[in-house]
What does this fold into?
Amino acid sequence: MNKVAVVGMGYVGIPVAAIIADSGISTIGVDIDERKVDSINSGKYPIEGFEPGIEELIERVVGNGMLKATVDYEQARDSDIWMICVQTPFDTLEMRPNFKALSGAIKEIGSVMKKGSVVIVESTIPPGTMSGDVKRWLEEESGLIAGEDFGLGHCPERVMPGRLIDNLTSYGRAIGGIDEETHRVMSEIYAKITSGKLTKVDMKTAEVVKTFENTYRDAEIAIANDFAKYCDAIGVDFFEVRDMVNTVESRNLHFPGGGVGGHCIPKDTWLLAHGSRGKYVPEFLIKSREVNDSMPGYVLGLMTEGGKRLGLDLNNCKVGILGLSYLEESDDIRNSPTLSLVEKMEGFGCEIIVHDHYVDRCEDVVLTESLDEAIDGSDVVIMMVAHNLYKSLNLSEIKEKMRTPLIIDARNVFSIKDLRNSELDYFSIGRGNSFSDFQ
Ligand code: SAJ
It folds into this structure.
């Protein structure tokens, strides 16, 4: 194979393209966002957040000409392999996948792809999508037949923010090919990307591997959230319990928190449920999703309970929320629990200021990069993301700056000991601290 095209220059597509280019294969990254294309072509990684090794890798492969990016699919016309790494969100209002990016990419590819090429989807999709929509769109657009004139495959991405290159080059992969020839080509290219085990399966099995992988995590987090609510209700410290339960090697209780965000976990349960096309409804998994979606509301409940106990008029107070991104040390605000919390607070008349030093713009909130602006004169400070910066905050200094000393720690950023010594009034999710802790 002489040339690979990777469509979708996001946090999945960029390292995929760069690692293939670094293996000595001429690679072209395609994206509709000119800003990203220009950034990559200048040897820069266009996404914020901490990604070890990515800057040097891009600089090297762009510098030696093995990787270039473009907005023009024509420039990738002679690619032997197409890899699609675009987002596949789920529309929870319409209760169906939003395939705008996927269908757009596939139709563009269909209009230029050459006979004998192989199209591989890395994006997470409902089981049955490859042999359904994807195959149909490609055949309609190209006039070619999948499995005869071109290869078709699904190799779900498994990268995790903060560990992109490490994951990509070490994790095993499900190689879901339409036929033996596609399996051969996929095995050859993925052997250049990862040292992990490559397992040949059919396309639907590969689709299920990925949706199960994330739905499983969603359910694990929901268990932690439900346990934490239980512990709060009866005055037990969930984290103390968690440490003891997890001493059993087959247990792995996760962490409770103010919600489950990102563009993977919150949607993959719905993609999985959609994929069974009514033949089976995974009720437990859907309930887990609902538990996780309830957490921003739970944070709001702690705030209103605390405000009531302190005689706060929540219609005339200032709330400082620390953390907007969905995950610590990230700038990604997709499905951010903080956005859900702010939306739920719209009914109140309070002033809300959101701080996040990783996020430089968001139209939906009043955003500041100044911690003082978020904390000074506030009646409530809500810790929604465990950014490292927040872990070094001094609680006594916070108390001095606040008008009313109410802290809601939704990410267990502060130790209970420090909170107790701070003379602040507080709630931490799962710490079982009823208001008897208030001085
Ligand atoms: N979260 C909790 N409690 C936990 C873990 C996470 O509330 O114990 C929250 C986070 O705060 C965040 C959300 O869940 O809002 C998702 O966090 P995540 O750590 O799952 O990170 P993601 O969304 O980047 O998930 C990705 C997924 N990787 C892929 O889809 C390829 C997931 O499968 C990985 O397990 C996860 O990274 C990872 O382990 O880092």
